[in-house]
Amino acid sequence: LPLVLPDGSLIACNQGANIEYPEHFSNDIRELSFMGEAFFNVAHNPEKPMIIATENVRVKVLGTSFNLCNCVNSNEIIVYLESGKILFYSVDSYDGSIVEQVVLSPGEKGVYNKSTGLITKSQFDNSNHIAWKTGILNFVNAPLTDVVQVLEKTYRINITSQLLLDNYFLTAKYEDESPETIFQSLQVIYGFDFQINGNSVTLN
Description:
This protein is mainly beta. It is built from three helices and 17 strands. The chain has helices spanning 131-134, 144-155, 179-190, and strands spanning 3-4, 10-13, 18-20, 30-41, 50-54, 57-61, 65-70, 76-83, 86-91, 98-104, 108-113, 119-123, 136-143, 158-161, 169-175, 194-197, 200-203. Strands 1, 2, 3, 4, 5, 6, 7, 8, 9, 10, 11 and 12 form a twelve-stranded mixed β-sheet that branches. Strands 14-17-16 form a three-stranded mixed β-sheet, with helices on one face. It is elongated and about 60 Å long.
């Protein structure tokens, strides 16, 4: 079930996400702090923007829907914008001034690199980043290296391979499949073997 904020905004949290927010938002701003991954559907209120703080990165919205990911062990903070517009920016940890910022439109993602402090934006052309929420994975002529990255993130597994995965391309759609059934289909398509041991998968 989604989390309902005091303003009526809905948040679907991925496993391990942590959100802190007041019982009542102040008069001029809706402020909350966040770690992990979640899909936000923010109630529209141009008089009272929402600001989501995750480490030294901020997402400022009036009313929109997006997926925000600041996951443990990741060197990036990523936001995928589905609708509306957002300001995605980093702040100086001493005085709170804006260091880098981009405005995102629907279909664009913003990426903050924790090592360099740089923010970039680009287009995204599928919804695999929210497969944890929708259960749907869609690949169109995708290199298996990309497929493996998506599967690792979606199912929280580690995949190692003795194959040159760049040489293989996948066009397929999976809906509410287990990792095992996905690897079984890859085995049928490409003829390679796999072993699953807990959260680890080996392709050979």
